[in-house]
Design a protein that fits this description.
Elements (H helix, E strand, L loop, with lengths): L1 E4 L2 E4 L4 E4 L2 E3 L3 H11 L8 H8 L7 H15 L9 E4 L3 E4 L28 E4 L3 E2 L2 H15 L6 E2 L2 H4 L7 H8 L2 E11 L2 E10 L5 E6 L5 H31 L5 H15 L3 H14 L6 H16 L7 H17 L4 H13 L3 H14 L4 H13 L3 H13 L6 H15 L3 H14 L5 H12 L3 H14 L5 H8 L1 H12 L1
């Protein structure tokens, strides 16, 4: 079925846009927006309508929405933004002006579902319930900013806070009926003077089963609210990922490409950055990319292939690096405006030796979400490679403050420790390396870094202990794998020093 106007044809069946009979390349989100608008011509479409139709109701930044609108206008009007049929109704929304006399046959009824998605795996929902207690002055910020943080996780339908407000006093049954399978976060605040303490409870919708709870220390909202929101988010994310991961394995939908992608990402974040976990993640993600239209799957596989070699978790192989670049390219071509895709693909490109292009992709991600931890860490790591240590420390420090408290901190914390060590700050390097070691008992990466930090402190006994612990994790740990982390020159001297 196609819809035609001017010299444009929107082919709904084949997901193609043609102008004068020539196919116009458009990113998937841009095509989805054009499709939704041509199926609803001359109707005033609100921002919420677009988010529900194109992003399944997930939290989306104004910058991301504006970029999609701008690219849709360009696609429909031969690059000109001034002549576009998509107009903005200030403060209300958008409209595709399409007189009936100019429309070709075949307009279908409005659809709000994302086209082409498998039906056997349903993205779980996540809801931050309106906070309760004596915290009315900070409840809106808590709800909105925690929702935005969790919306960074792939394949999770995060409910917009506005749509949740009416469920403040709803029962678990009512929440399950409204939002389907998924999870909810309940926050209850207690106030004492100018101090507030928050009690957070994550539970499963439908069943009402408690999964995780977390209590903050008393804090002064006027000074510490930003830090507390980050604190809750970084502890919540791995627990939520663990619950989603478990539900996929138990649901019978584990062969769905999106479920496989979540399994691959979950394997790395929950089981650690080690050879066995990377091998398992690679196998799962190779199944996921059988669906050639799933950008997150390609981006995740690109990351595994490239980072595995860069971190000494796989043998260096140019063919695997080339494959990583191909999957990163495929991911970006499928969705070049999704921050999760750009963060993973940009990191993979940097690790595969395409630093300039990788930095460009990561900067694009940060222009959409300036606080995205994956993009901050990957860009900081690349700058560290290039010798820009001060800027690398700044970006890595920001990433580590907002990184989920899972094995990921072992990787990013290790790189930050190396940057601090290069900068002569052995005290902070030791603190960060210690945190990285504690975060993952099954990776040699953080133990190699701690070995280097202890050697710089002239504590040879401690350095030797961490070398032995690294070999506990990876018994056949080679000098080449150590050099992948510390560099050839530093590795030879350090290992010779420990051997004496």
């Amino acid at each position: 079925m196609s819809i035609s106007f001017d010299n444009v044809e929107v082919d709904l069946a084949n997901f193609e846009l043609r102008r004068d009979g020539v196919r116009v390349p458009v990113e998937p989100k841009v095509f989805d927006l054009i499709r939704f608008m041509v199926e609803n011509p001359n109707r005033l479409i609100s921002k919420d309508d677009l988010i529900n139709a194109i992003w399944d109701g997930r939290i989306v930044s104004d910058a991301a929405l504006s970029t999609v609108i701008k690219n849709a206008r360009r696609a429909l009007s031969e690059g000109s933004l001034n002549d576009s049929r998509i107009t903005t109704v200030r403060g209300r929304g958008f409209r595709l002006n399409l007189p009936e006399s100019e429309m070709g046959a075949g307009v279908s009824e409005s659809k709000t579902a994302t086209p082409g998605r498998p039906d056997d795996f349903v993205d779980p929902s996540f809801v931050v319930l309106p906070p309760k207690g004596e915290i009315e002055d900070i409840s809106v910020q808590l709800q909105r900013r925690l929702s935005r943080n969790i919306a960074r996780l792939p394949f999770l339908n995060v409910a917009a806070p506005r749509s949740v407000d009416r469920f403040k006093d709803a029962s678990i049954e009512e929440l399950g009926e409204a939002f389907g399978a998924g999870f909810a976060l309940e926050i209850i605040g207690q106030k004492s003077g100018n101090q507030v303490q928050l009690d957070c409870l994550l539970f499963e919708l439908k069943k009402g089963v408690s999964i995780w709870n977390y209590e903050t220390k008393p804090f002064a909202p006027a000074m510490d609210l930003d830090d507390v929101i980050v604190e809750i988010a970084v502890h919540l994310q791995p627990q939520l990922m663990r619950a989603v991961y478990a539900s996929i394995l138990a649901s019978g939908t584990a062969e769905d490409p999106r479920a496989l992608t979540l399994q691959g990402l979950g394997t790395m974040s929950l089981r650690g950055w080690n050879r066995a976990a990377f091998d398992e993640a690679e196998g799962v993600l190779r199944k996921a990319v059988a669906d050639k239209k799933l950008p997150q799957a390609h981006a995740a596989l690109a990351l595994v292939l490239a980072v595995g070699q860069e971190m000494g978790l796989a043998h260096r192989d140019q063919a695997r690096r080339d494959e990583a670049v191909l999957h990163a390219d495929q991911a970006i071509s499928l969705d070049g405006m999704a921050v999760d895709v750009l963060g993973l693909a940009g990191c993979a490109l940097c690790d595969a030796g395409q630093g300039l292009r990788g930095k460009t992709i990561l900067k694009r991600a940060l222009s959409i979400d300036e606080s995205d931890p994956q993009s901050l860490a990957a860009l900081g790591t690349q700058l560290f490679r290039e010798g820009d240590t001060e800027q690398a420390i700044e970006l890595l420090d920001r990433a580590v403050r907002s990184v989920p408290q899972d094995s990921t901190i072992a990787v990013w914390g290790s790189i930050l420790a190396l940057a601090l060590l290069r900068n002569g700050d052995t005290t902070r390097a030791l603190e960060m390396a210690d945190r990285a070691v504690a975060a993952d008992d099954q990776t040699h990466l953080s133990r190699i870094v701690m070995m280097a930090v202890q050697a710089a402190r002239n504590d040879q006994a401690a350095a030797k202990s961490y070398w032995e612990d690294a070999r506990r994790v990876t018994p056949d740990l080679s000098e080449g794998q150590v050099a992948a982390v510390l560099g050839k020159k530093n590795t030879s001297a350090l290992l010779a020093q420990i051997a004496t």
